[in-house]
Every structure is written in C-alpha cells, then in structure tokens.
Amino acid sequence: MQVFLILLWTTNLARxxxxxxxxxxxxxxxxxxxxxxALAQVLLHxxxxxxxxxxxxxxxxxxxxxxxxxxxxxxxxxHSVRTAALHNGFxxxxxxxxxxxxxxxxxxxxxxxxxxxxxxxxxxxxxLSCVTHVTVPENVSLxxxxxxxxxxxxxxxxxxxxxxxxxxxxxxxxxxxxxNRNIECTFSSTRIKPGEIGSLIVVHIxxxxxxxxxxxxxxxxxxxxxxxxxxxxxxxxxxxxxxLLATWEKPVSPFDKECFEYEFYLINLKSGNEQILKISxxxxxxxxxxxxxxxxxxxxxxxxICRARGFWSDWSGIIxxxxxxxxxxxxxxxxxxxxxxxxxxxxxxxxxxxxxxxSKLFPPVPTPSxxxxxxxxxxxx
Length: 381
Fold this sequence. Notes:
One of its GO terms (molecular function) is cytokine receptor activity. InterPro entries: FN3_sf (IPR036116), Ig-like_fold (IPR013783), Short_hematopoietin_rcpt_2_CS (IPR003532), TypeI_recpt_CBD (IPR015321). Residues 127-225 form the Type I cytokine receptor cytokine-binding domain. Its main location: membrane. It is a single chain. This protein is mainly beta and 381 residues long. The protein folds into 3 domains: 25-114, Sandwich (Immunoglobulin-like), CATH 2.60.40.10; 126-222, Sandwich (Immunoglobulin-like); 233-325, Sandwich (Immunoglobulin-like), CATH 2.60.40. It has 3 helices and 23 strands. It has helices spanning 2-14, 325-354, 357-361, and strands at 30-38, 41-47, 58-67, 71-75, 79-83, 90-100, 103-106, 110-114, 126-136, 139-147, 157-164, 167-170, 174-176, 182-187, 200-208, 217-222, 233-240, 243-249, 260-268, 274-279, 283-287, 293-302, 319-322. The strands form 6 sheets. Strands 3, 4, 6, 7 and 8 form a 5-stranded antiparallel beta sheet that branches. It has a 4-stranded antiparallel beta sheet with strand order 9-10-14-13, with no helix packed on it. Strand 13 (174-176) and strand 14 form a beta hairpin. The radius of gyration is 42 Å and the shape is elongated.
C-alpha cells in the first residue's frame, strides 16, 4: 500500500500543470481601420471579435505602431489617436489580449496601413526649420523657413499650414526666392499656448506645379524646443569697490524666474580678455580689475528643470562699466597741454596788439627811391 501511494505521488509530480485558461481561444479584433482625422493625425479603430468569449476575463488590446516611429502600448478602448508625420505613410497592427488572473493570452495580429502621400520624388521641401517667439504675454509668433526640393520645377508654389491641437491655419505671409517660390513664412499671431509643456506643433507643406505633382511634407515640433527666448529685461550694472554687480529681470514669459538660465558675456576692453559665464540666478557679483573698462551683454534660455531647452535669446544691448585709468590720465594731460598752449598764444597775441609791439618789433621795410631817369622815354600816343 505504501509503495502504491509513493508511485501515485510520483506520477502526479511528473504530469505537466495545465494552465487555467487552457482551451480558451483568443480571437483578433475585426474591422481594423486607419483614418486621417487631421493634419498628421491618425484615428485607429477596431471592434471586438463577436466570437470572443470573455468568461470573467479582462479584454485589452495591444497596439503596435510600425511606422513612421515605432511605438507599442495597450488600451481597454477600441480606438486610439496618434500624431505622426504621414508623408511617407503609416502602418500599425493590433491584437486582443485576454487577461485571466495571472495568465495573459493573445490573439494573432491584425495589420493596417496608410500609403505615402502622393507626389513626385524630390519635389518635397527640405531643411524645414521653425522658431516660435512669445511676442507679448499670451501671444506666440511662428516663423518657418525651408528649401525647395531639388526636383521641384521653377513654377512650384509651396503652401504652409500649421496645426496646434484642433486649430489649423494657413500661412498669411510668405517670402519667395528668385523663381518666386515660397521659402519662408511668418505667423505674427497663433493659437499656440505659451505656457504649455511638451505640446506638439504640426507643420504641413504641400505644393502645386503645372509640370509635376508636388509631394507634401510634414514635421512635428515640440513647442518648447523651438521657442526662442526673449532678452532679459531691466539690466543694471554697477561697481562696488573691486566688484562688478549685475541684476536683471527674467524675459517676458509665462514661466517663473527659476525656469531660466543666463550667459554673461564680459570683455575687458583694456586687455581684450573675453569671458562667457553661465548663471542660474537673476544677479551676479564678480571681482574685476578696477583700472579697466568692461563691456557686458546677457542672454537667456530655459533650463531643463521646467521644460525642454529652446533657442538662446539674442544678446542684450552692450553696457559699459569702469574706465581705463592710465589712458584717461594721458588723455587729460594731452588735453590740458593743448588748452594751455592755445591760451598762451592767444594771450601773447592780444598783449602785442594792445601795445603796438608788432610794429616796433617788426618795422616795415622802406621802399627805395628811383634816382635814375629813363633815358629813352616812350610816348605811346
């Protein structure tokens, strides 16, 4: 009897453990579609497979974006929205995930794709670059430049659109090249919100030509990464004994002063020595040579603590402080010598004129008399 129990226990150990969900079939979603719902925006939509049995299980969906930028995520919903540049097409796939306690089962993949946007190769614009700028509180300008495609005919006309959230707008003002092709665009005012972090700006440029089909181009920009910061305000520079003191206010921006960093450009005009110092606050103290004169400029940028760093601001106007004492002394001596010499000459001239000394010192030379008569006078009558 003991031998039988031992054999039975050994047999149970050797038998593989069947998973709890064994025999449950997982079906892929149906009616998977990809729809362009806005500029550079795709709506992914599918429906649960009607043959799928839930049986106290949780159903989720695994979504994998294949192109243009790979991405994978899961969701409970049967739809998803993704922002991506679509000029080279878009492809994705989805499958069903069945979660039952600690067990996860998945179906086969269902794939969908969007073809590339139509147009001749080489006609798309290249070298697209965009910059935003907070012109006044709550207003952001947008400026973009690009180059025509190498295969674009001379009669090509490019047109730029930007999309921010649900707002789409065409460029109101272009600058053209020598063939009258649009290569630059400026929006003096946009719907871009200056205080947002990480929001995307979609730029779409298409074109037209009588000689070729112009292929559109799309690019996504992080609004913080392309912002050119304003110049620091109310800069004040002074000397305190052997120290240079500088203070300023943060640029015009919805972000707090802790979100900025600065570069302090200092030139010793006497020695020609240049320094660029990085500063994280709104004030600065530096020991300097008080016998020298300095020029100072400051510029600003966002730091990485609050948001993505953008473009540095322009340099502030030049501020001068201090003086070259040796050069100033020489200049003063030279000036005094010139003034004193001029005054002395003027005084001597006046004294001589008053006392008639010129005629005494330099009497006029008398004209000699003619003692000889002309022996041959000529009468012209």
